[in-house]
Amino acid sequence: MIVDFKKTRFPKTPQWIFEHPKIAYPVLAVIIIVSFLFIDQPLAHLLLSAQSSWSDILSLFDRIFSPMLSLLLFPFLCFFIRFIQKREKKSRKIWFLCFATALPILAAKVAAIIIGRATPEWMAVHGEATFRLLNWNPLFHSFPYATSCNIGAIAAAAGSLYPKYAVRAFIAGFAFGLIPALLPVCFLSDAIAGVFLGMILSIWVFRTIRRELMIQ
Predict the structure, then answer these.
(1) What is the DSSP string of 148-194?
(2) Angle at 54 between CA 53 and CA 58, to 5 degrees
(3) Crossing angle of helices 188-209/166-177, nearest 10°?
(4) How far is CA 64 from CA 33, 52, 68, 74, 185, in A?
(5) How wide is the angle at C-alpha 89 spanned by C-alphas 84 and 95, nearest 5°?
(6) What gap in Å lies between CA 127 and CA 141, rounded to an integer?
(7) Who is most buried in 105, 112, 116, 198, counting CB within 10 A?
(8) Does residue 104 have a cis peptide bond before it, meaning omega lies within 30 degrees of 0?
């Protein structure tokens, strides 16, 4: 059976965010601002002072969804499935994942360098949560957080490819995307911004290349 992604319904929750920017984007901005003003630093201080065995488990998830791993894994899988297994149509899904993760990761990295927000680690050592614009120091690459962005992108991509599970993918992406804020390697608002940036850009990629995604 041929699945025409041009006619397939997009994932309801992430797609609603994409198609209603006048409503969704201000709401997201308010959530991020409220978190920045009232939640980020108290939560980070609490989590930094209450490190437990759960941190090791959460760190594992953080490594699994690291941007570098996605940038290496998906192109390798695409090459392997396309040229080694000779499954051209199946490789199109992985080809889509390559673009759906690479663009959000690049956008998050560039934005983080430009904005230059300090991480909780810097705050814990130096006692300040500051911004240093155009800073190449990784300790000032907290907003938006690239790992959360990658998780959001993967979730939205999965929901785009499998619309039946779109809402579940959205919920899972949001939940896993907040893990970096629980470690904490970034602040809560950084994780939230990263997740939704990844979702929005991933859906944009899907809408742009969906005509190429004709698979059996």
Answers:
(1) HHHHHHHHHHHHHH-GGGHHHHHHHHHHHHTHHHHTTSS-HHHHHHH
(2) 130
(3) 150
(4) 29, 20, 10, 13, 15
(5) 80
(6) 17
(7) 198
(8) no
Strand partners, 131: 117
What SS3 state is found at 3? strand
Helix (H) or strand (E) holding 192: helix 188-209
Bridge partners for 199 per DSSP: none
Residue with tokens 């198609």: 19
pLDDT in tens, 13-36: 556 666 677 888 899 999 999 999
CB 148 within 8 A of CB 111: no
* CA 184 remoteness from chain centre: 16
Q: Is 144 helix (H, G, I), strand (E, B) or coil?
A: coil
Degrees (nearest 5) of the Cα angle 7, 10, 12? 140
- Going by C-beta distance under 8 Å and a sequence separation of 6 or more, which residues neighbour residue 176? 61, 65, 151, 155
User: pLDDT tens digits, residue range 132-179?
Assistant: 999 999 999 999 999 999 999 999 999 989 888 888 999 999 999 999
**Residue 120 φ/ψ, nearest 5 degrees:** -55, -30
